[in-house]
Each structure stands twice: as C-alpha cells, then as structure tokens.
Amino acid sequence: MADQRMLQFVSVPRDMPEKRAPNLRKQDFNEIYAEYAQAKAEEQSGRCSQCGVPYCQSHCPLHNNIPDWLRLTATDRLEEAYEVSQATNTFPEICGRICPQDRLCEGNCVIEQSGHGTVTIGSVEKFITDTAWEKGWVKPIVPAAERTEKVAIIGAGPGGLAAADALRRKGVQVTVYDRYDRAGGLMMYGIPGFKLEKHVVQRRVDQMAEGGIRFVLNCNIGEDVSFEEIRASHDAVLIATGVYKSRDLRGPGAGAGGIVRAIDYLTASNKVSLGDDVAEYASGELNAAGKKVVVIGGGDTAMDCVRTAIRQGATSVKCLYRRDRANMPGSQRETQNAEEEGVEFVWLSAPKGFADKDSMVSGVMVQRMRLGQPDASGRQTPEVIEGADYIEEADLVVKALGFEPEELPVLWDQPELEVTRWGTIKADFRSHETSLPGVYAVGDIVRGASLVVWAIRDGREAADAILARFDQPAASVAAE
Fold it and tell me: Dihydroprymidine dehydrogenase domain location, by residue (predicted)?
C-alpha cells in the first residue's frame, strides 16, 4: 500500500520557498530564495505522484533518483534522502540552486502536465544537502586504500571537480590545475552570488583539499607549465577547461570604451563580493553604478549580467534580444526575477553598431526584428524590419553572446589533439578519451557552452573510464 504522505498533489498546492522582495534583494548579492522549513519540505515532497516512469529522472542529465529522495524526505528520512541524492550527484546543493529545473526535471514532471503544478524538485534538493552539511552528514573523503596512479586535471570547474572527487574517493592521487586564484571555475567567478553564494562552492573545494586533492592555482598551461610536462608526470590527464573565449560583435563603433565582455564583467563583480580589490571595478570600467546599461543576449549569462547591474546601482538596465520571450534560451524563472527587479526587456531587437562620444560608447544602434521561417533547429529566424532602426542610449554595454573554445592545440603546442570544426575537443562520447591516449576531456570544452549538470555527468563518467583504464592488464594498455 502506498504511503499516505505521498500523492498529495491534488490537495496540496505547489509552494516555492519564500522569495525576498525585489526592493530588498536588489540591494545585495545574497541568494534570493529562503530555505524550506523541514515541515514545508516534507509537504512539498509529498506532492510527488511516484509515477511508474519518472520523467523527472529521465530528463535529468545525472539521472538523479528524484522520486526516491522525495519519498524519503516526505517520510522524515532526510539523512537517507541525502545519501540517495549524493550517490548520483557530486554537487546536489549547487544543482539545486542553479540548474534550470524548468527545462529539465520540473519541466517534465507528470503532475505539471496534468495541471497541478510541478513538484519543487530543485528547492527540495537544495534543502536536503544544506541540511546534510548542517547536521554533519557530509563525510570527509577517505579512500578505502591509496593507489599509486596520478591524474592531472586541467580546470577546476564543475567537470574537473566532479572527476577529481570521484577519482580521489577511489584512492587515486589527483592534482587540479587552474588559471584562477580560487577553484570553482564559473561556479565561483561566473555565476553571481544571488544565485549561488560562494561559501557553498568553497565548502566543497575545502572538502576536496582536506581529502587529499592537490590544487595548483594561478597556473596557465602553456605558460607556467607545459602540457607535455603535465602529461609526462601523470598516468592520465583530464582536460576540463571550459570555454572562455567570448563571441564578439562587429559594426561601427565596436571598439569604443564602455563595451565589455560578460565574463570580465561578472568575474570582476564576483571578485569584489569575495573581498578582492579589482582595479577595473574601482575605476568604473566594469562597474554599472550610475550608468545606463544595455546587455546584449538572451541566455542565462545575460540574465546574470542584467541582475548584477541592478545591484551595482545602474540608473536603467535593458536587455536586447533578437527573438521574443517564447524563443529565448535563458531560464524563464530568471527572466521573471530580472523583470521583478526592474530590468526592461527589449524583444525582437539586435545591435548593428554603436554610437560613441569622445571614444566612449553613448548608445547602441538597434535594428528592429521580426520572426520569419524556422531554421534547421526549428526556431524562427529573426529578420530585419527595414527602416525601424533607432539608438538605445547606453553608458555601459555588456556583450553576453555566448562563449567559444580557445585554440588549445595551438596554445598548448599539441597539434595531434583533434578538435571539431567548432574548435571543441573531439572526445569519445562514452569514455571521453581524446585522440591522445590517456588524455580525456569533459564539459564545455567538448560540448560547447552548456550546463553545470552536464559537466558533472561528464566528469563522473570520465573518472569511471580512467579507473577502468588503470584496472586493465598492463599489456592491453600498452597495445593502444
């Protein structure tokens, strides 16, 4: 007989954690959602229908056992819920905060399809793991036995850290190299604190360091140490650098001051929030205070930029996107949060150049668009409306147009490292091994700009493949 505390979706309405009022939350960079009380988490978990084919689980890149940990939460078995959640996800407290659940698990919830409102999966996931940290259920990394094999991981973002965690738990000697002064990659420097407070990331990094993972920070591969040196001194190498090269905009005035890249803008803001001195922020170059801000783009990075500008004290913030709301790639939840905080979205508009005064940007030349026939992906193609151009005033323009891979074979002097026509590294989709034996690659450097949850999945899979390689008889590895 089914537990009477489940299948409550008919009588219990969907209820998200309380969200701080816009006029309060835009004054700081703290997370905007409150934590569930345990009774509320149990109530909301009890709305799960425990369906026979859990679409939430099948649409999660990690295939998290969502119905199981919802049932355990609803029945006051929270420590077990944490164990089930942690079994498939290296960073459930991070995914609970930043995954676009509206496009993944929650967007495919069966009771959502029947009109009852999805189970609040992400908020419960966050609650479970935050409680686990608070109660001491998150155990240190203590391998059952040490191994002699050494693995180098290049990149301390979600893919690299997920692999490092999985390998270290099996006793492998792991060294993580990263160009920044803190580990975490985009989780530390790309995602603002109002979505992911930095102590949440640092807590996991500290756990890894205490568990024996070695971090070599402020290290540029190809400059401070060569890729060949790393490869020669390790039994396997994992490339998890992400994609940091920003797509650019051409056109008149594109070289004017005050036109900045999203990654530079967000990194500066996050560093300031962490207490660092950032010259470009202090000078106003990467600071929106007192400025009319225009952000170009419609993805999650653009949403992070507009909401950051609001908190920095911009006089106005507008987001230009060439399609309409229904066709934007960013999270609808984030778009709503931005609108609540005072961001104005200018749909069906695209830049064709920039106006400037004394070499500083003064506006964006905007072309009005309409949606035409669908392209190969099925999305309608934007078309220019002739004669509808205008100037959108701006003192600061942030380009959030997506990211491309750096030319790693050139930067690292590895011409045999095969890449695709998009510049991403070619890797086997099961093992994640590249064209160089014993060298693996995961995350955005393989997929192109994607989600944290996909990078975690890649990192865990690559760790399994590396361990399998180590456990092969020596002759079969030598034969490759």
Answer: 25-136
